[in-house]
């Protein structure tokens, strides 16, 4: 990758918006890129790295493994944002893994480098707080869904979140460009793959969503919102 391309990708990071081009250029010289292939683990629970990971390209899944071996996806991070910030805010997540969902390019900022940057540019600290706040709000919404909603409504809520965070508009309506397996969707809503498959089938039969080339297309966004809020009728999947 050329230095100009590296600089362009780094300049797209949300927390670095307050920096000038020259400041980002200097940062790019100090922080090397690391490339990960699909399915590769970026860090695991035993690796207590005091660092901020900046995702320049690709998508990364942050997940936790329960005592029964089941995975629960905490968040999916897209290019241009950060992860691993919990260790910097004394909010460590037990059993937390980070996995590349597709080929990814990541640069890692050490704690002392981030602290120095925040002291020099307080606006960067404010951006980090903003990113954390948005992520916490989404996590709270998902926890509420899991506690109060049946699986079809949970799945509909998740699809709406994915449309908002990464959806692209086509002539037929919103499309989620990332290929999510039913297993991955299940880990994001606290369910099982088989149950998610049944729920997705119900949404397709209701004309709300459609699967094309393993990508989710939303056929009726208002109907999807209604399912997310009120569930599907007849009775939901047990």
Query: Which stretches are low in confidence, meaning pLDDT under 50 for 5 or more residues running?
Result: 234-238
Task: Provide mean pLDDT, rounded.
Answer: 86
The top-level CATH class of the largest domain is: Mainly Beta
Number of domains: 2
Shape: globular
List the helices and strands and how they pair.
Blueprint (H helix, E strand, L loop, with lengths): L2 H9 L9 H10 L2 E4 L4 E3 L7 E7 L1 E7 L5 E8 L2 E3 L12 E5 L3 E7 H10 L1 H27 L2 H16 L1 E3 L2 E3 L6 H8 L3 H13 L3 E4 L2 E4 L2 H10 L8
Antiparallel strand pairs: 1-8, 2-7, 3-6, 3-8, 4-5, 4-7, 9-10, 11-12
Helix pairs in contact: 1-2, 3-4, 5-6, 5-7, 5-8, 6-7
Key terms:
disordered C terminus, alpha+beta, Arc Repressor Mutant, subunit A, Jelly Rolls, 238 residues
Brief overview, please?
By secondary structure, this protein is an alpha+beta fold.
Polypeptide structure, described:
The chain has 2 domains: 3-135, Jelly Rolls (Sandwich); 149-230, Arc Repressor Mutant, subunit A, CATH 1.10.10. The protein has helices spanning 3-11, 21-30, 111-120, 122-148, 151-166, 182-189, 193-205, 221-230; strands at 33-36, 41-43, 51-57, 59-65, 71-78, 81-83, 96-100, 104-110, 168-170, 173-175, 209-212, 215-218. The protein is built from 8 helices and 12 strands. A hairpin with a 5-residue loop joins strand 4 (59-65) and strand 5. 43% of the residues lie in helices and 24% in strands. Helix 6 crosses helix 7. Residues 234-238 have low confidence and may be disordered. A 4-stranded antiparallel β-sheet has the order 1-8-3-6. A 4-stranded antiparallel β-sheet has the order 2-7-4-5. The chain has a two-stranded antiparallel ribbon with strand order 9-10. By secondary structure, it is an alpha+beta fold. The longest helix is centred in the middle third of the chain and has 27 residues, at 122-148.
């Amino acid at each position: 990758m050329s230095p100009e391309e590296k600089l362009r990708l780094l300049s797209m990071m949300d927390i670095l918006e307050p920096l000038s081009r020259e400041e980002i250029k200097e940062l790019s010289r100090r922080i090397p890129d690391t490339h990960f292939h699909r399915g590769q683990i970026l860090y695991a629970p035993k690796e207590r790295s005091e660092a901020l990971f900046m995702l320049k390209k690709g998508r990364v899944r942050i997940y936790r493994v329960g005592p029964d071996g089941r995975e629960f996806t905490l968040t999916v991070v897209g290019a241009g944002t950060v992860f691993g910030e919990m260790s910097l805010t004394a909010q460590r997540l037990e059993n937390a893994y980070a996995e590349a969902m597709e080929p990814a390019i990541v640069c890692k900022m050490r704690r002392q480098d981030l602290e120095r940057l925040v002291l020099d540019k307080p606006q960067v600290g404010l951006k980090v707080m903003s990113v954390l706040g948005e992520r916490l709000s989404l996590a709270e919404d998902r926890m509420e869904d899991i506690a109060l909603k049946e699986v079809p409504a949970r799945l509909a809520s998740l699809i709406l979140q994915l449309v908002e965070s990464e959806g692209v508009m086509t002539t037929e309506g919103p499309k989620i460009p990332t290929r999510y397996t039913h297993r991955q969707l299940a880990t994001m809503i606290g369910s099982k793959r088989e149950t998610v498959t049944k729920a997705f089938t119900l949404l397709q039969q209701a004309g709300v969503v459609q699967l094309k080339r393993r990508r989710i297309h939303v056929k009726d966004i208002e109907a999807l919102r209604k399912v997310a809020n009120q569930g599907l009728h007849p009775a939901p999947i047990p």
